[in-house]
Write a sequence for this structure.
């Protein structure tokens, strides 16, 4: 297989207690606020249940642990595939694909706001959130500051 990516997915946490909890109770998603700027410039926010894994080789992990913590657990990719995990898609806000997705997101949100709540529409709406910007600003808990972050480097 590929040597450009790890054969293991890693999940990092800030505290040893969090890692012990995972070992005792399994992985549990947390709600994370994701932001999505649509073509009109409007910022849409959603709190989504999320559990993040990265596909970064151990020789390249230094920068990642500065943001997310030095306690980690690795799972074989085979496990992830059996569990239905999939990588996120990274987008350039200026791309043609993003303009199309922006319109789709606004259309779906309008339908949901108008009381249409069929399962397919809701599923499609939330599937758009499997996307992250290529680059953005993020709060660093350890440094207590907001810094530029190239999300693409996380290889989620």
């Amino acid at each position: 297989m590929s040597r450009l990516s790890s054969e293991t997915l890693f999940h990092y946490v800030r505290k040893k207690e969090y890692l012990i909890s995972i070992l005792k109770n399994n992985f549990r998603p947390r709600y994370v606020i994701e932001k999505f700027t649509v073509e009109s410039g409007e910022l849409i926010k959603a709190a989504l249940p999320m559990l993040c894994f990265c596909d970064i080789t151990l020789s390249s992990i230094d920068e990642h642990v500065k943001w997310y913590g030095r306690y980690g657990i690795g799972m074989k990719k085979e496990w992830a595939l059996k569990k239905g995990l999939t990588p996120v898609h990274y987008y350039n806000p200026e791309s043609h694909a993003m303009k199309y997705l922006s319109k789709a997101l606004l259309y779906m949100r309008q339908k949901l706001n108008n009381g249409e709540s069929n399962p397919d529409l809701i599923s499609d709406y939330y599937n758009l959130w499997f996307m992250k910007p290529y680059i953005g600003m993020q709060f660093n808990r350890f440094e207590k500051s907001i810094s530029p972050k190239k999300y693409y480097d996380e290889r989620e």
Notes: The first strand starts at residue 8 and ends at 13. Residues 8-154 form one domain.
